[in-house]
Amino acid sequence: MILGCDIGTGFTKGVVLQDGNVAYATRVETRARPARAMEAVLEDIAAVRGIGAGDFEEIVVTGWGQGKAGTDCRTEATISCLARAAVWAEPACRSVLCMGTQQSVALSLGPAGRVLQYIANDKCASGAGKFLEMILEALECPVERSAEIARCADKKLPISSQCAVFAESEVVSLIHEGESPANIVAAILEHLAKSLVSLCRKVNLRDPLLVAGGLANNPQIVALLEEGLRRRVCSFRPGPDFIAAVGAALSGRRGAA
Amino acid sequence: METERAISRYDYFRRVNALCELITGALATGAETPEALAGHLPGLLQALPEYHASLIPRVYPDLIEALLKRKNRNAIGTFLLAFQQYLTDLTDGIDRGSPVVSNFPFFSPEIFLGMGLVPCLSEAVPLIIALALTDGVAQELDETEREGLPGHVCGFQRVPMKAIEKGLLPKPDLFVTNTAPCDSSNIMYHYISERLRVPVVWVDSPYYNDARAFRYYLEEFRRMVEELERATGRTLDEDRLREHVEMGNEQLRYLYKLQDLRKHAPCPDPGMHRVLDTLAVMMCGVNRRMVEYTKTCYEEARARVERGTTFLPEGKREIRTLWTYSHLPNLLSLASWLEDEFGSTYLECPLSFLPGDRVGTVDTASVDSMLEGLAWRSFHFPMHRNVMGYSDVHVNEVVQIARTYHAQAALFGGNHTCKYAWTLPKILRDVLEDELGIPSLTYEVDYMDARFAPHASVKAALGEFFRTQTGSEPPGAGPGAGAEAAG
To answer: What is the dihedral of CA A66, A70, A75, A77, to 10 degrees?
Structure first.
């Protein structure tokens, strides 16, 4: 039994892998305290499944906070974890787009999940989840309802800034101009999808393309991605957020068993 | 009053000479770690001038660590002795009053030495300072920017210009350069010539890389010799030319054999030497010690192949890495670090690679045959052959190397000031991936200025890339074809 953890900037995800299957998955908010988040994941697993840290053959940690996990564990490169989990979920997978809180990454894979190319939104957060979260907060729109709200839009609004900060200013202007929240949310989602499409185009995308990360939970984003990339995508199972944690667990001593 | 000797009058020479003495002295102690070396330092410094001690705190600590390693030390030591000999001969020539020619790297120095001229690699000397000292040549770079030269103009021209102006390097009697590799460097040489009032002998590089182009280039090469004779009053001495050409031939024979050895797995030649190889090729035939450098690399590599040993840490799986553009000179220890951390061996890079099957050696039968052979080599010189015609020469060569050396990963570390280079990375990445399934990483640096891409960020980017290449064995299947279709 292996525990894979992905300490992201937004959430820390934990996946218990047993006999090559996900036996349990959990997530807690990181709140800029990676070690505490890691403890919370372990506490949750102990409370719900009765499994203690000492019961795991290995604990493998990846993600932003991997160096600050504060637990006896091994660390693993995030890109490798994404690739490993992608081919585990979809053996034919040749491309991955993982849309995280602070960073989105596009990967092109060779046969058997070998990483051939990868690129991240290195310049700005406008292609990542935090950007959407900030804007929706300003609009007092719950993140989980954003796709539904966007579908009520009756007008296309342009947002031209590449930078998250400038884009936020544009949104403030649109609010002051009296535009409806639905139109603004739709514009924001489209802007975000455009950034992600542009990121994907920098690597040699091949089918099938697997999408993952928190933003992959948003059906409107996924639909816009399919439209922008002109291809069908599939979502990571058991849940888009857990891809890196699953990859970490799979890299464990008997993860692939 | 006695005139100060050139070796101490020109501070760049003084600095490089002191660095050579410090490092060869450190290697002579036998210490293999910085901690062990620390115990020897007082004794070492006692035997050296006070100036040397002032440089020690400025030397990159990771460079010291890398060059003390057993795998690197012999080659580094012999190279530095050769470079020091070059400096001694160069400054002795200046002291004797011989004409100084600042030669572009595409011309290795045999021709100039054959004419009794002093060949000064004004672009290479600052590089030694940049690769060894944390403050490098930052002052001269910043001064040129303050004067209005943009930061994306090559430091290899900006720094020597400023250094000559400040008296840190000697003012040459002539510059000799090609009309390659890029418009930016051509314009800089025009500018430097006017600013310093030093004439330039231009050798026109043809657009195409073919037989017709070479005939043209050979004529240009011969015209260069005539112009040099006219300008300096020196003539080509056949015996002297032959002496240096023969040394160069011997050096290249070792290099070609060494390049062949690098095809073995694991690669038997440590990557830290590639920066030195570039300099050694630029200085081909300059002195006997430069031959010794290449011979040392070859013999060490051959011994590893014969014994079946490797310099990689025990248990480290090799990642055979092709550097598809160049190395990173200002981070000399990088290749050594990649070997130790990730098992990434450095197969070749176009900046240090000379295609032996095409270039061969120079026929020493006559002056004519030697000129033709040297022109042929110059025509095929790194960064020269690659810029003629379309990108085919560079791309095909890289693919051929990747194939014959069984490369597994590729790095394109582009110098942001190399204008011609930035047409290449996407083409290279696609062709390596599509034809050979080799992943590439592209990153941007400044060869002269470590501040442009701090060493820590370069290491982080390369480390991340190599971590994706280690331990990425495919796992067993998960939900498989049942992956949820979205949208």
So the answer is: 0
